[in-house]
Design brief:
Keywords: Cell membrane, G-protein coupled receptor, Membrane, Receptor, Transducer, Transmembrane, Transmembrane helix. With about 325 residues, this protein is mostly helical. It has helices at about 1-10, 40-50, 55-85, 85-125, 135-160, 180-220, 225-260, 265-285, 285-295, 300-310. It contains ten helices and no strands.
Length: about 325
Amino acid sequence: MSDRGGEEVTSSFNWSSVPNQKKVNNLTDCVRIDSSAHPFFLVVYTLVFLQKPSSNTMIYLKNLVVADFLLSLSLPIRITDYATSSATIHQVNCNFGYSILYLNMYASIMFMGYIAASRYLKVVQPLGTHILQSVPVAPIISTVTWVFFLAMTCIYIIVSFNTQKSFTSDPVSCQGIHSGKHILLYNILHISSCVMFLSVLVSLVFFYYSISRRVSLAQQRHPASSNSKKLAKSRRNMLVLVIVFCFCFVPYHLVRLPKIFLWGYCSWTKVLYYGMEVTVIMSSLNVCLDPVIYFILCKGFRTHLRLGVVRGN
């Protein structure tokens, strides 16, 4: 019945209006669809839909995926801003593109810190007795984090619109289209963000050092024990987390702090501008490097990735 209805609909369609059309019975005869986006959908599908929140680490990983997705939404705005000389596109990028970029960046920083703290507590509290290791606490922490960052982003966008001034030529920096009040808020937010970044960085270094020390002591006492192997695996996972964190976010903040205080000096403006552009690109690479974290920390992701590779072959 449904096949007959489909034939009637096909026959009623005016195929003469669509030139060079050829009907095929086998979909494999059509042009193959590009599968380059499959790894991204694999990450989202595995972490967001398939995996149950069996641990707080999994909940933080899901939120890290959301932060990466927000960054991917801001990239078309930035690319269009660089590709055109439109003042309107530049304003949109300054008000929304950068806001989404910073939202993703510092949300990623915080959730990577939460993941590191969760892995550290799993080593020092293997029985899971600490309150921060309980699964119901992780959604609360994640919700508070998102509400805080979304509130700061909304305040920043509102102030950006209210303090925006007209200009006749395209300014090099977004600071050129805003008044002194906005720049003051901009500097306060970024100084606070740098303090937040330094806190997470110090915590990551401490976690890695503490786990490494425990691994050394365990290997000296029982080098072939299963506990030593588990601790060594935890140290490896923490090292990968620290490397990704440092590569993506440390260069940006090494340039960010001097820019806050030296941007008004002409001798530093060009150096700081190009330094910021390069380090922003490096910070955006966390979208590409975060799947490494998913792979080592999420067993479900590893399983589906292997199945995807097998099916692809």
